[in-house]
């Protein structure tokens, strides 16, 4: 989940979500859609969760008592306005004689306003791509301050830092620019 095209900002890699179009104020929208972000999250978890679940650590008595089988786990994610829903199916089965127990899928909602921040990001990037400028104060007023939008302009680019009201999380992204048309 490291961006390919980014700039450093306050010690962090900040992804360019709109690429410069030479000679204009506009930029080319480079955002991925929500479904792609959900897939990236699911793929990341699918690759990293197996290191958290070590069947061999269950102990010799349990391993000798049961026939334990597992296959590739399934992970799905769904980004909502105020939460992310993760569903993890570990695909682990325990067998002993005629009895079989399959570990059920696990569903967890994490309170994180990623959907709200992504919606705001889409609005900003689309406006930057269309006209080359985004007015954050009227936007925040029109949306009753649900998301605080801070714009910094480290030459030649623009950095947007978003913070949902009553949230400790920020979402930041960059707009690539030539700077001279600003």
How would you portray this structure in words?
The chain is α+β, with helices and mostly antiparallel strands and 182 residues long. It folds into 2 domains: 6-33 and 113-175, no CATH class; 37-51 and 58-111, no CATH class. 25% of the residues lie in helices and 37% in strands. The chain has 4 helices and 12 strands. The protein has helices spanning 34-48, 60-65, 114-131, 136-142; strands at residues 6-9, 12-20, 27-29, 67-70, 74-79, 83-89, 92-96, 99-102, 106-111, 147-152, 158-164, 170-175. Strands 1, 2, 3, 10, 11 and 12 form a 6-stranded mixed β-sheet that branches. It has a 3-stranded antiparallel β-sheet with strand order 4-7-8. The chain is elongated. The relative contact order is 0.18. The mean pLDDT is 90.
Please describe the structure with a list of short key phrases separated by commas or semicolons.
182 residues; alpha+beta; 6-stranded mixed sheet; 3-stranded antiparallel sheet; 37% strand
Compile the SSE list and pairings.
Layout: E1 6-9, E2 12-20, E3 27-29, H1 34-48, H2 60-65, E4 67-70, E5 74-79, E6 83-89, E7 92-96, E8 99-102, E9 106-111, H3 114-131, H4 136-142, E10 147-152, E11 158-164, E12 170-175
Parallel strand pairs: 2-12
Antiparallel strand pairs: 1-2, 2-3, 4-7, 5-6, 6-9, 7-8, 10-11, 11-12
Q: Nutshell version of this structure?
A:
This protein has 182 residues and is an alpha+beta fold.
